[in-house]
Structures are given as C-alpha cells and as structure tokens.
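> forwarded from #structure-qc
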C-alpha cells in the first residue's frame, strides 16, 4: 500500500505545484489525455492500444507520477449522494455518487469497502488492510482470488483478456510486492492491483487491494467521475495537503494502516 501512496505524494508535488485556473489550459489537458498512450502498460511488451483515461489510471497505479500532472483539475464527485462510513473503522469513509451503494468488505481480518452502482455494472473495491496469518504469502495468490471473485460477480466463466500486467518487488519502509492487471472480459474493463507488505518473523502478511470495473464503453467516464474522486477523497484534502485520518502523525501516504493510530511506520 505504501508504494501507491508514495506515488500520490509525487502527484501532489507536481499537480498542486503547477495547478492553474486557466480554462483553456484545462481544455487542452483534457484533449491531450484522449490520445495519450499508457507509459507502463505491458503484456509483456508495450501495448499501444491502452490510451486515454484507461491508460492514465493504469499509469497512476503503477507509479508514473507525471500522469497525475496531466489531470485537467482535481477529481471530485459531481453528483454527491450518500456517505459511506465503516462501522468498525469510521475513519474509512467517503462520499458516494448518486446511484451507488457501499458495503463493508466481507471476510475475516479484512477492512474495506465495496462500492457498487445500483445496476451492478460498476464496482469499486478498496481494501486498505487484509491480513493473512501466514508469512510471505505471494501477491499472485491474492490477486487471483480477487480476479476470480470479480469474474464470478459478473457471471463470467471464461478467461479474461490481459491488456496490461506488472509485478514488482520493492522496499520502502518495509519489503513490498506490487501485482497489477488490466483486463477485458464480456464488454467490461477491470483494473486490479494488490500490494503485499511483509515483516520478517511476524508470521503474517498484509495486503492492500484495489478493484475498479465498468463497462468498456463508459470506463473512461467512470475513471473520471467515480474512481479518481474516490482516490482523492481517500488521500488528498481539497487544499492539496495529505490526509492523516487516524491522527498518529503519519499521513495516509506513508501510514501502513490509515485507520489505526497504533500502527505506524517503523
């Protein structure tokens, strides 16, 4: 989870440091995104067909900080509806668009939210913390579970087309593994990624999980109007400063658990 958060930190340095009220520039930025080709999409070679907000959203998840500076403005929910607040972790909360409902993610040792449009065609899943009481569980195991659950939800039994894939090892404060997929199936586009964090001798593995799914013909719109606004609510205040939801002195960009003040980097 820290990997994606560090990328958001780089975003804000670039994006908020160079923001403008110039409508012309915003229009130019919006137009340029439509023809923008993803810089990080491979399968296993670069895929020139992943463009626009689809590619931009994938690049953001994969650490291309320059992608954030190309946004024409701060993503916000245009048609606010209800408010989701997690019953066990009330610091996990955000505004929903009209026509969406949110549910606490099911599963033992899982803290998260599943947001579903009322026609069951758009899904956003954010699990900031899922704990498995086994050491060094590979992210491949977790992402396969997430993908299979997603395909089952949509009633798809075939093999999805893989548009982009990436797995990477890294060390931030703790050793981590990133595993992401961009998939197409049955007229849908889905971006799924998992970040595993491992501590030697702890006897458990922790994961952050993100799933974003929408019909292919409206995926670009949902990225702009739903998925990106959720991300900015979770990580960035309107003034561009980072959120410290649990008040432990570590903002959400570096905190290993955004909802528990007793868990801090170290």
């Amino acid at each position: 989870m820290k990997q994606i958060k560090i990328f958001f930190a780089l975003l804000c340095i670039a994006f908020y440091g160079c923001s403008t009220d110039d409508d012309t520039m915003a229009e130019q930025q919006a137009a340029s995104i439509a023809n923008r080709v993803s810089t990080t999409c491979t399968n296993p070679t670069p895929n020139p067909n992943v463009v626009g907000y689809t590619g931009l959203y994938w690049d953001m998840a994969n650490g291309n900080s320059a992608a954030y500076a190309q946004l024409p403005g701060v993503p916000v929910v245009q048609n606010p509806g209800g408010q989701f607040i997690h019953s066990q972790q009330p610091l996990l909360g955000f505004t929903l668009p009209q026509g969406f409902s949110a549910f606490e993610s099911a599963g033992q040792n899982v803290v998260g939210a599943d947001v579903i449009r009322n026609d069951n065609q758009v899904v956003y899943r954010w699990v900031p913390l899922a704990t498995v009481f086994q050491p060094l569980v590979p992210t491949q195991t977790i992402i396969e579970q997430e993908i299979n659950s997603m395909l089952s939800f949509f009633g798809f039994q075939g093999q999805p087309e893989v548009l982009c894939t990436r797995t990477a090892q890294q060390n931030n404060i703790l050793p981590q593994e990133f595993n992401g997929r961009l998939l197409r199936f049955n007229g849908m586009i889905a971006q799924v990624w998992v970040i595993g964090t491992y501590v030697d001798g702890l006897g458990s593995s922790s994961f952050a999980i993100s799933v974003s799914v929408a019909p292919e013909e409206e995926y670009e719109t949902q990225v702009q109007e739903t998925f990106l606004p959720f991300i900015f609510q979770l990580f960035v205040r309107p003034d561009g400063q980072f959120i410290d939801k649990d008040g432990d002195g570590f903002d959400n960009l570096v905190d290993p658990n955004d909802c528990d003040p007793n868990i801090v980097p170290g």
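QC bot note: The chain has one domain: 29-234. The radius of gyration is 18 Å.
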